[in-house]
Structure formats: structure tokens, C-alpha cells
Amino acid sequence: MSKLFEGKTAIITGGGKASLKNGAIGSIGYGISTAYAKEGANLVITGRNVQKLEDAKEELERLYGVKVLPVQADVNAKDDNEAAVQNVVKQAIDAFGRIDVLINNAQASASGIPLAEHTVEQFDLAIYSGLYSAFLYMKACYPYLKETQGSVINFASGAGLFGNFGQASYAAAKEGIRGMSRTAATEWGKDNINVNVVCPLSYTAQLEKWREYQPEAYEKNIHGIPMGRFGDPETDIGRVCVQLGSPDFKYMSGETIVLQGGSGQRP
Asked: What single-letter DSSP state applies at residue 77?
């Protein structure tokens, strides 16, 4: 049986490997990488932690027979970010000759800090790692996505949709990404590039740590999810990303898909 992305290439930012204590997938980026690898895609994964990238490469290539190119890259307030992103894209083209899907998943932020107490450095952390990163990757990948009539999947958050306490910079970055994605959907529609946004709620290694240190807060949070659980990075988030990058969903563009188990419903 043919696979959806056989011979195609996906760039996934923040795609390094993280595991839960039981060995299950512990990061959204790696969950997406796994879902795409199972569909035969060759992958370009980026992140700050070289070991997590190398671990991802080893496991994905061994289990699914795809090729994985790990590239250390970090968009921040200090470095030449445009050159760093262009280097990732150049390596992707040199290795695989094409880009079919761009997934902007990487994001860092300082959470739990009220707006009035936020520092400029904390605000920059979120804006650069999220909004600037998505902007630069979209700009650099555009010529190649135009050739393949590819797809862009950007990640936003309920923090921006619903104004979560203590997440001002994170929410600002994520809502910026949503606005930029809608504009790209308008501008790139003529090229048959579709651009969509995912707002996930997933069980990750970070959430596992939070559960250990604040079990009461965790239980309160999970009771607010009608399905009674957090999403799985691969099956609940990654599989949706596979569909958003597939021909079946090509006519969907400019949309925000909330993957939160029935919580955060909007009109």
C-alpha cells in the first residue's frame, strides 16, 4: 500500500525526541515527526538540543525506513536568524531536492508571569522563537512550496484564543502566528499552497513534570476536558497534521483547528 508522503519532504521545527517516563512520545514535535515518518516522508527536523535531534533521527530511520536530516537551529534575539533559517532550508534542498510540508511547531516562553511583571527579554523569547521563527521559515520555504504546491501548518494555542493568565508573551506570539497564517492563506492561494493553524492540548514531558509537582492543578485542568484526557502527540496531533498536509485537505486554508478534546469550544 502506498503511503501519503512517499518521496516527499517535511520540515518540522522543534522535532527532537522527548519521552515520558513510560517511554511514550513526550513532545508534540516528535509526535508529528513520527506520524509523517509512518507515511513515508523524509524529514528535516530542527531544535536547540543536538542529542534530542540525533535520538529522533536514529529511531525514526530505524523504525520507519525514512531519511531524517537533523539540523541544530534556534531563532532568538541575538543571532543572525535569517541566515540560520536559510541554512536549514538549503540543507533540506541539498539533501532531498524538495519541500512539500512546513510545520512550524517550535516555541519557547516564560509562563506563569503576569503581564505587568514580564521583562522585555521574556517577551523577546516568545516572539523570536515562535512568531519570528514561523515568519522566517515561511519566507524561506515559499519558493519550494510553490514548486510542489505544498502545505504550511503553524502552531498556535488556546493561550492566545482564550487569554490564559500568565501567558502574555506566549499568547502574543501565537496570535501573531494566526494572523500571519491567515494572510499567507490569502496571498498564497493562487499558488495552491494551503496554510492552516493547529491549537493543541497534548500530554508532553513538560506536562508530566507539572502533574508531579502540582497534582491538584493537573486534576482540575483535566476535568475541564470533556474527553477526560490530554491528547496524544502522535495519534491526536500528528495524525491531524498528516491530513492537513495531504491532498484531501488542500481546499482547507486559513483555518484554526482546535485539538483540545472538546474544551475551548468557539462559535
From this structure: S
